[in-house]
Every structure is written in C-alpha cells, then in structure tokens.
Amino acid sequence: MTAATRDVQAEARVWVADLLAAGRELSGREVGERFERSDRWGRDVLAAVRAEHAAAEMDRLPVVEPEALTAAVEVESAAAPEADGNQQVSAEGTHEVSTPDDEPEKGHPRQSGPAGHPGARLVAWLGFGFGTVISVAANVLHAWIPPEGAAEAWRPGLAPQLGAAVWPVALLLSVEVLSRVAWPAGWQWAAAKFGGVVAVAAGAAVISYGHIRDVLVHWGYGTAGAHVGPLVVDGLMIVCGFALLALSREIKPVVEAS
Length: 258
Hints:
Layout lengths: L2 H19 L6 H7 L4 H22 L5 H18 L3 E4 L2 E4 L23 H24 L14 H7 L1 H15 L6 H32 L4 H26 L10
Antiparallel strand pairs: 1-2
Helix pairs in contact: 1-3, 2-3, 5-6, 5-7, 5-8, 5-9, 7-8, 7-9, 8-9
Protein name: DUF2637 domain-containing protein
Keywords: Membrane, Transmembrane, Transmembrane helix
InterPro entries: DUF2637 (IPR021235)
C-alpha cells in the first residue's frame, strides 16, 4: 500500500467517523464515490470505522468486580422489607397491613355492582328511542285514518296529530326521570315514582296498542299480525326501559361514616 493510498484511506476514515458521529447514514457506494474509489473500498472503510467505534465504546464500559456485585445484591436484599410498605415485620412473622391507597377516602363514592358493557346504555337508549319513534309515527298515522262516512277530501286537524304523540313521549320522559333522579329512601317515594311510571306506561301501552293495531289493519295486515305487531314495539320499549333503569343503579355512591 503506497503512502498516497494510506493518506486517502486515513482521510476517508476521518470523514466517515465525523458523519457517523453526526448521525448520518452512509453506504459503501457513497464513501467510494466521495474518494473516487470502488463500492467495496467504501464498504471496507465503513466497516473499519464502525469496528473502531465499537471497540472504543467497549473500553468506556466500567468494569464491575464480582465482590462489589455480590455486596450490592446483599444490601438490596436487606433493604427490601423496609421498602415494602404493604408488609410489617414483627415477632410473630410477616403480615400484610393496609396502606392509605387501599382505603377509600371518607366522603368519596365507591362503585358497587357490575360495571356492564361500555356500550350498554347507548344500545338501550337506541332501542327505547326507536320504539318511541315507531310509537309516535303509528299514533300520528292513526290520526290520518279516515272515519266512516268521511268525505273524500277529509284531512285530520293539527290537534289530533300533535295529541297522538303525547303518549309515547310521556313514557319516554317518565323513564328518563326515573333513571336519572336520585330518589330519597322511603315507601312514599317508592310508591310515587313506581306508581306514576306504571300508570304512564299502562296508559301509553293501551292507547298505542290500539292505534298501531288499527294502522296495521288499515294497511291490510291479518288479524294475528295486527294484534301481535303492537306487542313487538311495546316489548322492545319495556326491555330497553328496564335496561336503562338497571344501568342507572349499577354505580351507587357509598359514603363512609366519619
């Protein structure tokens, strides 16, 4: 190897080392083209610089004596019981003790009951809302059924159409109030809330059942279909309504006595 070749190679190593230290990625082709050499020559220079860098990094690593490592392990083992805040050592042995993190703060609610599926309330509301929309639509459509002997140009008034939506909307609001209000304890409150919602639900079911049945008959449904169809809507609203009530009682505040 001539002196000129050694100088070029040394210059290439310095150049490559500086770029690698700066975080630059290089290839053998780039190095070869930079110094007018072949790709293989550039790869050899890259390999040599990387090997020197790896050796230098190894030299910087501290040498840990076996005796020092053993002493460190013994010290850590001796300090372990003191660092564990959930254990207490006594003459009888080791037993668990509670920490402040394990106990709920006074005055803060704790969760009781199952958490339920994250989308359960959404699905229940979709079902109840869908049933309400169907019930409202059927009640309004019932107002458009012409009475016997009506003229050909007969049209229902605005009041009957608006009044037809009262019953399902009243049931919707009753379930919403029952599920969201934190009712006080006592039989009077229980009688008021459950008696009221039962009255609203029963009245809305009877009226809506008749309206949906009449609409289905008007559309040409048979006797069985006309009588079963309203039960589908009412059953959906009952299931979803009770689901909303159950979900509203899954998380109950439990306040610790001071």
